[in-house]
Design goal:
alpha+beta, four-stranded antiparallel beta sheet
Length: 735
């Protein structure tokens, strides 16, 4: 692997700057000026990016349900209403002449709106499914045409003219287009609020970590550059592919979190080198050869985890891969190019404006930093079996609720209970027979007779989960039926019915769509590709960690322990968001299931962040082991030097994720709070307790590799620290 810097020349005196150091520090003012110009261009290029993002993307574009939905939209636009007007007649009946006249007038006016088609209503069809059971509410249904952004613009234009009071009735606007548009609007508003929460708290925490206000501002600046650059990348991607609006949350969280992680690591090492008497240029060179290499390596491991989402066909997941890879690489580039240039210009002034006394904290005496972590490492290694078994049992126990996970689809219950489109859909669920819009639809293609259609309809109606079959509506050689299943829209019975309908023989080609069919197809697409994504992450992670350590055992430990660190997150997701515990305190409505793509997304993000911290710890342990050959002392030294840093980075990232978790959209809340928990568990339990305990148990065998792999690592590996001859191995010091 290419080194970040050239090895220092032999001989006395400080090493001269190598190739990478010369490149990033030769013209520091010019580097920062170019960065400022590029950032300004990114602001312009990425402005208004949220307006070009979509709010869907959970469907498999190659699935049967997707094909059928598009065909029905094309052939029978009236069959696919995405706009619903809930007409409330108050104390009067919806059949009252005055109410009926007002409602018919609204429907007729809606039919004249540009971009609206397929307008129907209870008052025209007298369909019982469009009338509430109590007789005081009924529906006007229509379809807004165009892509997601066009539909949103149409809704913005027409909705104010329909919601509110019209004569004797009250009207609320709902339907899937309203749900998605309201979700997109709320996410944009919540993201701004999250940034306003996270930035000042992050700055205070950085001051507490560094003491110096100057040093604290550097990671924050790197994070802002990464976020703005990624917004520009996402805006460019929207020109030729769909990108989910949810990806903006990941951009903010990872942009701040990873940039702060990388800058923390680099600035801490730079200040450490300055404290030994090195001049700024030498300190930067040493920092890039050590911490810089680790940052580069860490960014690759995180990017690999996020890249695994490219395996899946849903653009919701692929969007997070686009955003995540972009922000990781930009954060690493800013940390490895802009930050060294800034450090050269600042020199010893990086320690200026020490604000710790204002916060009631005195600077620690030199040489005492990390002593508590050294004592922790000593205690853990002295009782290694107890800590290894205890922490493993705790993590497994916390993950047990995930064994009862139920997968579902994202719907209006993602929104706050007071959101208009959520209110409309909840009224429909609670008060209308058969949940309009929640059934299954069968697309029938091929020439058929009325007798054949009737016989097929009869066979469908005979299936045990079917309540009612409507249709067929025929146009040429194409027809469609609507099927109302028993129970909830996407429960297990509805999903079984999808399979029964697809296996039912017919004299024409049939394809099934509807909410339950989309869920079945989405679960199939994820299940089919999940082993490939997992194998990709595991194999590339094993290779990268081997290149860092030269060990066969450490990569295996890293993959297993990283996966184990995520159990608490998955258990909490089911216990809180599926089962509804704490729903009142956290302000969300539990749909009783977890959206199918969310666990995949959360695993890829959290696994990458866990590897981020794992690389920081392992690189410092490897550096000390190469220097001394003492395994136990290397583990103790590594935790002493990085324990506080990893914990500080985890707390800061958790603050950012919790700020994201204040969102009023449930999926975003789940993502933010779940990953915050995973990050804290990884830093405070796995890295602090489980890793040193396991490494103590494996002893010097931790570093074993067969001779061919040792030679491979010597040629291509990436090591933290200077290139030195391997240290003579020592017997483990007593713990």
């Amino acid at each position: 692997m290419t080194e970040v810097n050239e090895a220092p020349p032999a001989g006395d005196g400080p090493p001269r700057p190598g190739g990478w150091t010369r490149f990033v520090t030769a013209r520091p003012r010019l580097s920062l000026l170019v960065a400022l110009v590029l950032t300004a261009l990114a602001v312009l290029a990425g402005s208004g990016v949220a307006d070009h993002l979509g709010s869907g993307g959970w469907e498999d574009p190659a699935a049967e349900s997707t094909y059928a939905t598009k065909a029905l939209e094309r052939e029978f636009p009236d069959s696919q209403p995405n706009l619903l007007l809930l007409v409330d007649s108050g104390r009067a009946s919806v059949d009252d002449p005055a109410v009926a006249a007002e409602a018919r007038g609204l429907a007729e006016r809606l039919a004249t709106e540009q971009g609206v088609t397929g307008v129907g209503s209870y008052w025209r069809t007298k369909s019982p499914g469009l009338r509430a059971k109590d007789g005081h509410e009924a529906l006007i249904a229509a379809r807004i045409t165009g892509d997601e952004n066009a539909m949103g613009r149409t809704l913005d234009r027409i909705a104010p003219h329909y919601r509110g009071t019209h004569g004797t009735v009250q009207v609320k606007v709902g339907g899937i287009v309203a749900v998605r548009h309201e979700m997109q609007t709320i996410i944009k508003e919540d993201l701004t609020r999250a940034e306003m929460i996270a930035l000042p708290i992050t700055l205070v925490l950085l001051v507490m970590v560094f003491g110096s206000a100057i040093a604290a501002l550097l990671p924050l600046g790197i994070g802002i550059v990464a976020i703005l650059g990624t917004n520009a990348v996402l805006r460019g991607l929207t020109s030729f592919t769909d990108v989910s609006v949810f990806a903006l949350n990941l951009t903010t969280a990872l942009g701040l979190g990873l940039a702060i992680d990388y800058a923390l690591f680099i600035v801490r090492r730079y200040r450490e080198e300055l404290s030994t008497g090195a001049d700024p240029l030498t300190a930067v060179g040493t920092t890039l050869r050590t911490a810089g290499r680790t940052v580069l390596f860490s960014a690759l491991t995180v990017a690999v985890s996020l890249a695994a989402m490219m395996v899946f066909p849903q653009y919701f997941l692929r969007s997070f891969a686009y955003a995540g890879i972009a922000v990781v690489l930009l954060a690493a580039a800013a940390a490895l190019i802009l930050l060294p240039a800034a450090l050269i210009l600042l020199g010893h002034r990086v320690n200026s404006l020490d604000l710790r006394r204002l916060l009631g904290r005195e600077p620690k005496p030199s040489g005492t930093e990390g002593t508590a972590w050294a004592r922790t490492a000593t205690l853990v290694m002295r009782r290694a079996p107890l800590f290894a078994l205890g922490t493993t049992a705790l993590l497994v126990l916390l993950g047990l609720p995930f064994t009862g996970v139920k997968f579902g689809t994202a719907d209006d219950r993602q929104l706050p209970s007071g959101a208009e489109s959520h209110v409309v859909q909840q009224h429909i669920r609670d008060g209308f027979p058969g949940s309009p819009g929640g059934g299954l639809e069968i697309l029938a293609e091929g020439r058929a007779t009325e007798t054949q259609y009737a016989a097929y309809k009869q066979r469908v109606a005979a299936l045990p989960e079917v309540v009612r079959v409507d249709g067929p509506l025929v146009r040429g050689d194409t027809a469609y039926f609507t099927v109302q299943p028993e129970g909830e829209t996407v429960d297990s019975a509805a999903q079984r019915l999808v399979g029964d309908l697809r296996s039912l023989k017919a004299p024409f080609d049939t394809k099934v769509t509807g909410t339950a069919a989309v869920l079945v197809d989405s679960k199939h697409a994820i299940g089919e590709r999940l082993p490939w994504a997992g194998a990709f992450i595991a194999i590339v992670t094993l290779l990268l960690v081997f290149l860092l350590t030269g060990s066969v055992l450490i990569p295996l430990q890293a993959v297993v322990l990283n996966a184990l660190s995520l159990t608490a997150m998955f258990g909490a997701v089911v216990w809180v968001f599926q089962d509804g515990h704490l729903s009142g305190a956290l302000g969300f409505t539990s749909p009783g299931s977890i959206e199918t793509t969310l666990p995949v997304l959360m695993f890829c993000v959290a696994f990458g962040l866990s590897m981020d911290y794992g690389v920081f710890l392992l690189s410092r342990i490897k550096e000390e082991y190469d220097r001394t050959g003492d395994h136990n002392e290397a583990v103790r030294h590594g935790l002493q030097r990085t324990g506080g840093l990893i914990t500080a980075a985890a707390v800061i990232l958790a603050v950012v994720m919790v700020a994201i978790g204040t969102s009023r959209v449930t999926n975003t809340k789940m993502l933010g709070l779940g990953i915050a928990l995973a990050v804290l568990m990884d830093a405070m339990v796995v890295r602090s307790l489980l890793v040193p305990a396991i490494m103590r148990l494996t002893g010097r065998a931790t570093w074993w590799a067969p001779a061919p792999l040792r030679r491979f690592h010597q040629r291509f590996g990436l090591s933290e620290g200077e290139t030195v001859a391997p240290a003579q191995e020592k017997e483990p010091a007593p713990v």
